[in-house]
Design brief:
The chain is an alpha+beta fold. It has helices at about 5-30, 35-40, 55-70; strands at about 75-85, 85-105, 110-115, 120-130, 135-145, 150, 155, 160-175, 180-185, 190-200, 200-205, 210, 215, 220-230, 240-245, 250-260, 265-275. The strands form three sheets. Strands 1, 2, 3, 4, 5, 6 and 7 form a seven-stranded antiparallel sheet that branches. Strands 8, 11, 12, 13, 16 and 17 form a six-stranded antiparallel sheet that branches. Strand 5 (about 135-145) and strand 6 (about 150) form a beta hairpin. About 20% of the residues are buried.
Length: about 280
């Protein structure tokens, strides 16, 4: 082998070895481009709250339902339990214990209030109306411990009213001497059925009646005022007032026969008392 041929072979061997290394470097750098741009292609695993789980949503729904339930009004019913001569007794019943108030007034349930004992699911209270015979309007309002309210229907009532009528069915006056007369007065009205100046020995009056009047609470009797006039000449006229007590029945009628004497005269009376209740 010539020296020149040997050099050529050595050069070719070196080139072959360098080409293999370079090719390996190129293969290592080929696919993928710039790692900073490409980056990883796998999405990291994350925790996602399931749509069926939101506790806040479930709690909100439950709270809303509970609120609707607790805001339901309280049922309250009221009635007039009793009418008395000096007022009315009002009772109520509620679906649960409440702090109840009776609201009342003339022409409408307003302007005045009375607190029932309680809190309680039922109760009664007396509304005193001794000074009026007018009808009043009333209703019961109440509030439960958690703030819910209820109101009854409106009631209308007045106290028990007793009215009395006094009739003088017969009246005669004994006048033994001189002249005489008599006047009668009852609950603000006066009648003079006989005289004065009538001659004896007896004078009689026709029947008459005093107008109806309302009795106050608890009134069980009243006076019939009898004013006697008697004159015997030459003496001046003498007068005297005698109050005859008239008992009043609770209701219905009663008849009284009374004889009353004063200043030398005697009156004979037959009376009828009628008391009506409304």
């Amino acid at each position: 082998m010539s020296r020149r041929l040997l050099v050529v072979l050595i050069v070719l061997g070196v080139l072959a070895t360098g080409g293999g290394v370079a090719g390996g470097l190129l293969l290592a750098r080929d696919p993928g481009g710039d790692p900073a741009v490409a980056g990883p292609t796998t999405i990291p695993e994350t925790t996602v709250t399931p749509t069926s789980e939101p506790a806040s949503s479930t709690s909100s729904t439950s709270t809303s339902s509970s609120t609707t339930s607790t805001t339901t009004g309280v049922s309250v019913q009221a009635r007039v339990a009793e009418r008395l001569e000096d007022g009315v007794v009002v009772s109520y019943q509620a679906s649960e214990p409440i702090s109840a108030v009776l609201v009342w007034g003339f022409g409408g349930p307003s302007g005045h209030q009375l607190q029932f004992p309680g809190p309680a699911a039922q109760g009664s209270i007396k509304l005193v109306l001794a000074r009026t015979t007018r009808s009043v309007s009333m209703r019961v309002t109440g509030q439960s411990a958690d703030g819910r309210t209820g109101t009854s229907d409106t009631l209308s009532a007045r106290r028990l009213v007793r009215q009395v009528v006094l009739e003088v069915q017969a009246l005669t006056l004994d006048i033994p001497n001189g002249t005489g007369g008599i006047a009668t007065g009852f609950r603000g009205t006066t009648f003079t059925p006989l005289g004065p100046g009538l001659s004896g020995p007896r004078a009689s009056a026709g029947p008459y009646a005093f107008p109806s009047s309302v009795l106050g609470a608890g009134v069980r009797s009243g006076p019939l005022a009898l004013r006697f006039f008697h004159e015997v000449q030459p003496n001046p006229t003498r007068t005297r007032v005698v109050n005859l007590t008239i008992p009043f029945p609770r209701s219905g009628q009663s008849t009284l026969n009374r004889n009353v004497s004063a200043v030398g005269l005697t009156a004979h009376l037959r009376l009828r008392v009628t008391v009506t209740v409304s």
